[in-house]
């Protein structure tokens, strides 16, 4: 049983974003039959999760206000899916790099200062998707221009990630614009704290 595990309701139901209610209903019936736990006895837990995603996608797309919001924010949803397909967890424990115990010596050996911090910054750049643009940490023999380039890049560094998975509130469920603004404000606080 192969299913889409992201958040995009159109992809969950395997339909185009411009689909009308009739097409949404038809797609829902098809996917509900496909992923119903009774039809997938070999893995009922996984089928139940997929079935729940199908039901949720259907409910969201049948609500005209939510459908409009989802259509307007489709790119963001797909971007979140791409991020979630990667490992959301930060690739390393930054705390371990705040002490000299994490490296041995200042030469260019595998566990030296330069090797350890080069790998740490490489992982951060890879996690953020800027691996091509990020200069390497360098070696004990790096020239001043390389060192300056490295520090300039990281001093100005701002992550591309939205940290939307840290949101506390689903703003689509807000009763009115005042509540939505308050929700957005709280969500933004959580995102900034995570960054």
Task: Provide keyphrases for this structure.
54% helix, 0% strand, Putative DnaJ subfamily C member 21, Helix Hairpins, 195 residues, mainly alpha, 8 helices, single chain
Overview of this protein structure:
- It holds the Pfam family ZUO1-like_ZHD.
- InterPro entries: Chaperone_stress_response, DnaJ_domain, J_dom_sf, ZUO1-like_ZHD.
- It comes from Streblomastix strix.
- Residues 8-78 form the J domain.
- This is Putative DnaJ subfamily C member 21.
- The protein has helices at residues 9-13, 21-35, 44-62, 64-72, 74-85, 113-128, 144-155, 177-194.
- It is mainly α and 195 residues long.
- It has two domains: 1-85, Orthogonal Bundle (Helix Hairpins); 94-155, no CATH class.
- Helix 2 (21-35) packs antiparallel against helix 3.
- The two termini are 37 Å apart.
- The mean pLDDT is 82.
- It has eight helices and no strands.
Topology:
Elements: H1 9-13, H2 21-35, H3 44-62, H4 64-72, H5 74-85, H6 113-128, H7 144-155, H8 177-194
Helix pairs in contact: 2-3
N-end to C-end Cα span:
37 Å
Largest sheet: none
Count of distinct structural domains? 2
The CATH superfamily of the largest domain bears the name DnaJ domain
Reading the helices and strands in chain order gives HHHHHHHH
Radius of gyration: 23 Å
| Record field, number of beta strands | 0
| CATH architecture label name of the largest domain | Orthogonal Bundle
Beta content comes to under 5%
Oligomer: single chain
So how many helices? 8
CATH class of the largest domain: Mainly Alpha
Domain J: 8-78
Protein name: Putative DnaJ subfamily C member 21
Organism: Streblomastix strix
